[in-house]
Design goal:
The chain has 3 domains: about 190 residues, no CATH class; about 110 residues, Beta-Lactamase, CATH 3.30.450; about 150 residues, Reverse transcriptase/Diguanylate cyclase domain (Alpha-Beta Plaits), CATH 3.30.70. The chain has about 500 residues and is α+β, with helices and mostly antiparallel strands. About 25% of the residues are buried.
Length: about 500
């Protein structure tokens, strides 16, 4: 009988109060039969000191009390006063019967016990206190009558003292027992409702999660709910939501992962199998919300696979996860396009200095191939064209040089614009001299709107010629050879130029 209780338990007490009031009203109406029952006893000689008028009075009193209580039940069934009236009515009936010398002593303790049905400590205290007061008063009033019919008592006070003493001991025992029973009962109900509340909250949370998962199923191409507690998987895209068992001792991949793996690019199958290994998912997801990886479907293109934690232990070990896949091919294309923009020279559409430096750093981390070649390229006469024909003509010359490089290099490597009129080429070819000649031949074929001619100075450094040289040394050699080629060009043209 604690005062701090949950909201659900409070609602239970109110509903229980309504139900008990209705039942007690029925009991009161049934007590109206007490008068006729006693009248039968009077007629058979069982009750010698009771008249038929007393029987009629008892039934009349009970009917009046029952009617009043019925009105209260219909108007205020939740009110505590309706409860107290029902218990008081029963006590009044007992007092009246006792005072009328209908000896039914056990009934004195019926009312406090019935009050336990309300699961309310204040109601129980009221019923016990009122019951004892009425018991005390009725015993005192009945003492002269009892002494007249009994020979073992010398005075009414002797009878009263003896009788009320026994009633007091019985009341104390009954009160303590009833209090413990009430406390245990209400404690049990409270814990039951608290547990129900926890279960209800968990179910509500799970329903919300399932609703969320159902909505996610519309977003993702595949959504698989994996329960590590019960070792099951269930596709949320499947209308039937059928669960399939997972044999963790022998099974390394879920049915969905096995089906998807059949569409993965051959060179990515090992990586996909490692990522979707069901035996390692829990450890990889521990204390994490999700893990993801991108793979290529041979038909649909790029897709993203994710494991997302739905429910986990206090230690962060996932109990329930969802495995999803979603096509990200368009996203990947946009991403690649953005990356290309950051790595591409806006004017020439060749790769830029940043891309060149990143590619060289990547090459430095490995071993140089025998056919690795670095080309250093510079446009001849750009300053003269800019000064005499304007920057539009100069830009045209730079774009023309880029086109010549792009067409000549092709799939042999990558061409970069690293400065205003400076270019670099990273190529893989066994005959770099031929590639140099090809670039110059392509330049001879070029004609622009502002300028009819384009020439480029080209130097290169091949790894096979300098096997002991590193990237930086090869780059320096290529620059030196480019400047030598430029000097030859100006000498051939008879142009004085200081390097």
């Amino acid at each position: 009988m604690e005062s701090s209780i949950s909201l659900n338990y409070d609602e239970f007490l109110i509903d229980n109060r309504v139900n008990v009031n209705r039942y007690l009203n029925t009991v009161l109406w049934l007590f109206a039969l007490t008068g006729p029952a006693i009248a039968i006893g009077v007629g058979t000689g069982t009750f010698h000191d009771i008249t038929y008028l007393t029987c009629i009075s008892i039934s009349a009193v009970v009917i009046i009390l029952s009617a009043i209580h019925l009105i209260l039940v219909r108007k205020a069934a939740k009110s505590i006063w309706t409860c107290l009236f029902a218990l008081t009515a029963l006590d009044v009936l007992i007092v009246y019967m006792s005072y009328s010398h209908v000896s039914i002593y056990l009934t004195w303790f019926l009312v406090p016990l019935l009050s336990l049905l309300y699961c309310d400590r204040s109601v129980y205290f009221f019923a016990t206190a009122l019951n004892y007061v009425l018991m005390f008063t009725t015993t005192l009033l009945n003492s002269p009558y009892e002494v007249m019919i009994r020979t073992e008592y010398k005075s009414s006070m002797a009878y009263f003292a003896n009788t009320i003493g026994g009633f007091t001991i019985e009341t104390l025992i009954m009160f303590a027992s009833g209090y413990l029973i009430g406390k245990l009962t209400t404690g049990y109900f409270k814990n039951l409702f608290l547990q129900y509340k926890v279960i209800e909250d968990q179910e509500k949370s799970m329903e919300e999660k399932m609703d969320l998962l159902d909505s996610m199923a519309e977003i993702y191409d595949n959504v698989n709910l994996i329960d590590f507690v019960n070792n099951t998987e269930m596709s949320l895209r499947d209308a039937e939501h059928k669960k399939h068992g997972i044999d963790m001792s022998a099974q390394t991949h879920t049915l969905m992962a096995q089906r998807i793996r059949a569409q993965v690019m051959p060179d990515q199958i090992d990586a996909f199998s490692t990522f979707t290994n069901i035996k390692t998912v829990r450890s990889r997801l521990t204390n994490k919300k999700l893990i993801s990886a991108d793979f290529i479907d041979v038909v649909a293109g790029w897709f993203r696979a994710q494991y997302i934690t739905v429910d986990s232990t206090l230690d962060g070990i996932p109990n329930v996860v969802i495995y999803t896949t979603r096509n990200v091919d368009e996203e990947k294309r946009r991403e690649e396009n953005l990356i290309r923009i950051t790595l591409t020279d806006e004017m020439t559409r060749l790769f830029n200095r940043r891309c060149y430096d990143e590619d060289l750093n990547e090459i430095r981390r490995g071993e140089l191939r025998d056919d690795f070649v670095l080309f250093s390229v510079d446009v001849n006469g750009l300053k003269t064209v800019n000064d005499n024909k304007g920057h539009a003509a100069g830009d045209e010359l730079i774009k023309g040089a880029a086109d010549c490089l792009a067409f000549s290099v092709g799939n042999k490597g990558k061409a970069y614009r690293t400065g205003g009129d400076e270019f670099m080429v990273i190529a893989y070819c066994s005959e770099p001299e031929k590639l140099k000649d090809s670039i110059k031949e392509k330049a001879k074929e070029w004609h622009g709107i502002y300028t009819d001619e384009i020439t480029m100075s080209i130097g290169y450094a091949a790894h096979k010629d300098k096997p002991g040289a590193g990237i930086d040394e090869l780059e320096h050699i290529a620059d030196e050879n480019m400047y030598l080629d430029k000097a030859d060009f100006y000498k051939e043209r008879g142009i004085e130029r200081r390097r």
